[in-house]
């Protein structure tokens, strides 16, 4: 059974705002909805700064959501590790997002001493179909 | 020998500004430096909106640069195809970018009837080492 | 709700043996365990031809398992499409497999007109932890 | 300028045959053609065991070639590190290989203390177009 998170949703949010203030640059950025055992759920508010013409949410906005969701899952599991760095991210874009908030659910598939590997499922709020699937690897600095 | 581009740098830039005005939302976005046979070079200006604490350029800014660079290479090769959509993007992040503009060089490895596949090499201006390597696939709508 | 498969496990197995006889070249290859709505389960028998020194199953054997598992999920959903081709595969290797059969569970996240996208979870039989996670894209020929 | 290799082609070949004897199981496997600064060239002989019906070389055979080519580039650069493990591999398949040997050219884009990242270009011998492009990451054990 995966271990319980060592940081609460509130603690992770406060840490994120401190170390990554610019995720909210130009408008609201991703928000931590929940953390759990090796997992995290983030919401990306539907906002002009994330849009493509036609009102659809842009690829880079989804990629940023996936990146931070994995980072939050690592943080919640290990405690504050500001120096963890993304080494690999891979995305499949499957459908056009609706004109709604996006929900990203991150789950770590491995949390090793040096590497964390996880996936993120991104959906438009209230829908079942995946908009985007991401996998990523974080390098964890020696502690 | 790969075919000559069918759109000039100026034509591609004007088309991008028209269909993706929001890449410059909140500050200067990626700029087309050059187009060539199955290739394109883009510059991401060093600007506060792309930064992480410590002054380094963020992962999502690099991912956006790679995405648009591949799209520009497709545009330059095929002419205006506003509906081409990214289906897959994969990134390896290798070094921390310097406090300088980033240069992304996109090259299409395949330009088929339905799919275009390419890679993007991202470096800090004036440096040899790669900061990030990306590969991506675009689905091309039937014409 | 995903559609029911249009081919049975037996029909898919017979089709595979006919079009890909060489997956059993040199010893037993992957076996179809089950097909379901947009999904398939394959077993790779533990056999000398798939091993690395130390008795662990090789990376290429796992990659072959993932590739065929996605193909079987496409077949079961669409019926015999011998010309579907893999365009992209991406793997994260997370743990050393045990000295046991491997089980690969494929699930299609998108089954479009031109592209099918899915993921494969690979585990050693009887274990919960993932050995490998794969995502892949198949191009489906016009019908 | 990248460092000169620390192992010769002959030394790497002998090491490979010793630690991975099974790459030649069932017929000739990949052969080291050359090693260079952060690079390696491998040849996969055209042989029945690597074929798909129609005489084309199979995806798993290409994936195995890419994996070993990156490993050889790591070996040639670092000396014998039998415990280096693949953590990530990503492939774009672009064309059907010809009925000929395949040539895989691996180049390391990063050789760090913990991670090596590289790409592999795979072509049918004597052709310019890429059959497959791969990127991969190796975790290097502490020395």
TrEMBL record, chains A, B, C, D:
Q: Which CDD domains match?
A: PaaI_thioesterase (cd03443)
Record keyword Ribonucleoprotein present: no
Signal peptide (residue range): none
Which superkingdom? Answer: Bacteria
Q: Which keywords does the record carry?
A: Hydrolase, Membrane, Transmembrane, Transmembrane helix
- List, alphabetically, the Pfam families matched: 4HBT (PF03061)
Locate the transmembrane regions by residue number.
68-91
What Gene3D superfamilies does the record point to? Hotdog Thioesterase
InterPro entries (alphabetical): HotDog_dom_sf, PAAI_dom, Thioestr_dom
| Boundaries of every Thioesterase domain copy | 54-128
Record's protein name: Thioesterase domain-containing protein
């Amino acid at each position: 059974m995966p271990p319980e998170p060592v940081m609460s949703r509130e603690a992770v949010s406060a840490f994120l705002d401190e170390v990554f203030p610019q995720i909210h640059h130009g408008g609201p950025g991703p928000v931590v909805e929940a953390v759990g055992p090796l997992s995290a759920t983030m919401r990306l508010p539907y906002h002009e700064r994330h849009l493509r013409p036609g009102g659809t949410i842009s690829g880079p906005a989804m990629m940023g959501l996936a990146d931070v969701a994995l980072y939050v899952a690592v943080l919640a599991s290990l405690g504050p590790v500001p120096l963890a760095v993304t080494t690999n991210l891979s995305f499949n874009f499957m459908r056009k997002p609706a004109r709604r908030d996006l929900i990203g659910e991150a789950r770590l598939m491995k949390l090793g001493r040096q590497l964390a590997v996880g996936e993120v499922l991104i959906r438009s709020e209230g829908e079942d179909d995946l908009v985007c699937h991401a996998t990523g690897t974080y390098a964890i600095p020696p502690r």
